[in-house]
């Protein structure tokens, strides 16, 4: 590879880093660690690389030390594994100071992981991302031999979503009636269309989300895993979307696919579920009360972005509300969230976070009969499960505190407050 071409590409990219305007994202990096960013397609991994580069500049790193390579640049169309060392030569042409390497869409180069491991072994500082079916998180961990920290990149959380929409949302701002109205309107939009960054400014959000889903479905799941029965996979995903909020065993998924006349094995269904989770389209919660084997086989499923779930739904606001709460918890606690269900006590609670000792119910409203159902579940939990120190009900708009006769304190919070960490 011509090192002058590489140097020119690096210098061009440095100018982009210098001037690009970004929505600040809530991520922290250790200064002397190597990272690979993983997550849902189009969640904003590349822009997070730009953000990290700008953070280094603010810390006193000079622009010439930032070596950013986008492997989708047409000038690298003939780049091969043996050309990677030329990047180091080109970097030293620009400066002999310590370099900070950013490799975007590196999966386009076959064998890239060998170079990435060598860079880590030589104590270089490296940040890597890739966004297609050749490079998903679980593969990366194995292929990089534990030399890199993985960081999950979700679509925008609600704070970032409001920032991207240029809506102030400090606690002082939220005292203003005009700001409250704008924030609530955006909460409704976020509930319906999720937080994929590119969707924010689009008028036809649903069409964009459909296209993203088809890319994930075809490239990140079917092609990558060489799935021979894509129709069975399609039916399975639709069944999961229809049953968000409810536990769903592999047997039920298997029967749902069989019921439409498709031939598929239960083992294939189990593999399909893992394929979809590995593409970051879905995540699961497990019953904290169950033994390990039951935990694994009867989960509840959620989509990592509400917009992608919503393309399957018609008039299912309650499903979107619970999925949004699940996304918020998953982004904060990853796989350390559960649901609570006991046939013996009759307890059925949507979420439990052991780290926060918090149990959470989700209900569109707690008016009328809904109040008795949701509150009674938490009261029963209060009597029998002392690890749940905080009891919360997240609703669409209701806000109040309930103190029961036996001293249970239940905080009812609207979705907006929950998303903004106001309670």
UniProtKB/TrEMBL annotation:
It holds the Pfam family DUF4143. It comes from Limosilactobacillus oris F0423. This is ATPase. It comes from the Bacteria. Residues 35-162 form the AAA domain. InterPro entries: AAA_14, DUF4143, P-loop_NTPase. Residues 220-355 form the DUF4143 domain.
């Amino acid at each position: 590879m011509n090192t002058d071409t590489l140097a020119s590409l690096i210098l061009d990219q440095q100018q982009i880093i210098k001037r690009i305007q970004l929505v600040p994202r809530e991520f922290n990096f250790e200064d002397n660690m190597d990272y690979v960013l993983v997550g849902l397609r189009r969640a904003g991994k590349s822009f997070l690389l730009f953000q990290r580069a700008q953070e280094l500049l603010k810390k006193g790193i000079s622009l010439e030390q930032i070596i950013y390579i986008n492997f989708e640049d047409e000038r690298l169309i003939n780049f091969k594994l043996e050309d990677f060392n030329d990047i180091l030569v080109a970097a030293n042409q620009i400066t002999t100071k310590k370099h900070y390497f950013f490799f975007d869409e590196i999966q386009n180069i076959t064998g890239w992981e060998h170079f990435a491991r060598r860079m880590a072994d030589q104590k270089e500082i490296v940040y890597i991302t890739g966004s297609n079916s050749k490079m998903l998180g679980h593969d990366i961990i194995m292929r990089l031999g534990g030399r890199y920290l993985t960081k999950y990149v979700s679509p925008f959380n609600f704070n970032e979503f409001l920032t991207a929409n240029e809506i102030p949302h400090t606690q002082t701002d939220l005292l203003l009636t005009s700001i409250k109205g704008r924030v609530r309107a955006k909460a409704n939009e976020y509930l319906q269309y999720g937080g994929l960054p590119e969707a924010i400014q689009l008028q036809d959000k649903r069409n964009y989300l459909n296209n993203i889903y088809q890319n994930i479905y075809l490239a990140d799941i079917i092609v990558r895993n060489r799935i021979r029965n894509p129709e069975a996979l399609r039916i399975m995903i639709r069944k999961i979307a229809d049953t968000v909020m409810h536990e769903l065993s592999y047997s039920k998924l298997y029967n749902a696919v069989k019921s439409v006349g498709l031939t598929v094995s239960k083992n294939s269904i189990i593999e399909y579920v893992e394929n979809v989770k590995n593409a970051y389209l879905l995540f699961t919660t497990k019953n904290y009360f169950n033994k390990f084997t039951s935990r694994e086989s009867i989960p509840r499923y959620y989509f990592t972005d509400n917009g992608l779930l919503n393309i399957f739904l018609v008039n299912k606001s309650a499903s979107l509300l619970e999925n949004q709460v699940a996304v918020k918890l998953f982004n904060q606690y990853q796989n350390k969230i559960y649901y609570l269900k006991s046939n013996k006590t009759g307890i059925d609670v949507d979420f439990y976070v052991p780290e926060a000792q918090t149990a959470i119910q989700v209900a569109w409203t707690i008016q009328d009969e809904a109040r008795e159902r949701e509150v009674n579940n938490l009261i029963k939990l209060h009597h029998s499960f002392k690890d749940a120190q905080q009891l919360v009900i997240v609703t669409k708009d209701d806000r109040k505190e309930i103190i029961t006769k036996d001293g249970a304190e239940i905080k009812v919070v609207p979705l907006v407050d929950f998303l903004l960490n106001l309670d």
